[in-house]
Amino acid sequence: MFARTLMSIAAFSTLAAGVRAQGAADDSQVRPPVSKADIEIVKRAREILNSPAKWNRADTRDCPAGEKTFSLYCALEKATDEVSAHFEHRGAAMQEARFVIDDIAPNRNYEHRLMGYNNDPTTTFGDIQKVFALLETRIAARLREQSAAPAAPPSPAAAPPQVTKTDLDILKRARALLDSEAKWNRADTQDCPADAKTFGLFCAFQRAAIEVTGSFNNQGAAIQEARAAISEGAPNRAKYQARLIDYNHDPTVSFADLQKLFQQVEDRLAKLLARP
Questions:
Q1: DSSP for the chain?
Q2: In the chain, which residues have pLDDT < 50?
Q3: Which residues of 213-245 are buried (b: 16+ CB within 10 A; e: fewer)?
C-alpha cells in the first residue's frame, strides 16, 4: 500500500511538472507593456556588448556574475540587473528582443530565440548591434504609442472620422512623398524632422497632413484607414503594437507592399467619400 502511494505521488509530481512546463511554454509570445527603464536596459546592454572581444558566441543562458564576455541574452540580463535590480526572463526588453529576432530571422525557427540567434554561425557582430538598434527603436515607438493613448476609453457613441476630399488629398500627398524606394526611411520613429528627405509611413502621413491642411491629426481619416488596412491584411499584424511603425519596420514588407497599402487606403477613402 505504502509503495503504491509513493508511486502515485511520483506520478502526480511528474504530471504537475509537465503541466508547469507546458504553462511556461505558453508565455513565449507574451508582450508586456514597456517603460522608460526598458530603453535604459537596451542602451546598457549595448554598452556591455560594445566590441567583438566582449561577445560570447557560445551562449548557454548561464550568466555568471563575474563574466567578462557576454551573449545577447546575458548582456540583456546583466543590463536589467543593473538598471532595475530585478531580472525577468519574460521582461519587456527581453521579449521585444525575441520579437526582433522573429522578424529579422523569420525562417530559422530557433528553439530559444536569443540563444539560437547569438550562437548561429551566420550571425555577425554587426547583426548583434542591429538587434540592439532595432530593439531601442521599437521600444521607443511603443512608449510613444502608450503615452499617446487616451486616459479614458472613447465614448461608445463616438463616430469614426468623417471622410472628406481633404483626407483623399492627404493620402495622395503621402503617396507622392514616398514614391520611390530611395525616399523610404525603414527606421521611422515618429520623430519627423521638418527638413527630412526620407520618410517612414507615419511621417509621410504627418508631413502630408501638414502640407495639405497646416496641421496634423493623429486620428484623421486617412491615417486611421491606413491603420485599419494594416490590421486587416498585414501578414505579421498579430505582433504589431504601433501599426504604422511596426509595418514600416517589418523586414518582410517590401516597397511594393507599401505602394499596395497606399492604393488600398486610397480606394477605401474614395468609397467612403462616395457614400450619400
A1: -HHHHHHHHHHHHHHHHHHHHHHHHTTTT--PPP-HHHHHHHHHHHHHT-SGGGB-SS--S---TT-SSB-HHHHHHHHHHHHHS---TT-HHHHHHHHHHHHHSTTS--SSHHHHHHH-TT--HHHHHHHHHHHHHHHHHHHHHHHHS-SSPPPTTPPPPPP-HHHHHHHHHHHHHT-SGGGB-TT--S---TT-SSB-HHHHHHHHHHHHHSS--TT-HHHHHHHHHHHHH-TTGGG-SSHHHHHHH-TT--HHHHHHHHHHHHHHHHHHHH--
A2: 1-26, 152, 154-158
A3: eeebbeebbbbbbbbebbeeebebeeebbbbbb
Q: What is the pLDDT of residue 149?
A: 60
Nearest to 138 by CA among 97, 166, 169: 97
Take residue 244 and report the three cell numbers written for it: 504604422
pTM above 0.70, yes or no: no
Cβ atoms of 90 and 104 closer than 8 Å = no
pLDDT at residue 150, rounded to an integer: 62
d(Cα 138, Cα 97) in Å, to the nearest integer?
A: 9
Alpha carbons 196 and 193: distance in angstroms, whole number:
5
Contact at 8 Å (CB) between 31 and 236? no
Amino acid at 219: Q
* Cβ contact 95:31 at 8 Å: yes
Q: Using CA atoms, how far apart are residues 259 and 180, in angstroms rounded to an integer?
A: 9
Q: So what's the pLDDT on residue 160?
A: 56
What is the distance between the alpha carbons of residues 181 and 198, in angstroms, rounded to a whole number?
9
Domain boundaries, the chain: 36-144, 165-274
Find the distance separating the first CA and the last CA of the chain, reported in whole Å: 81
Radius of gyration from C-alpha coordinates of the chain: 23
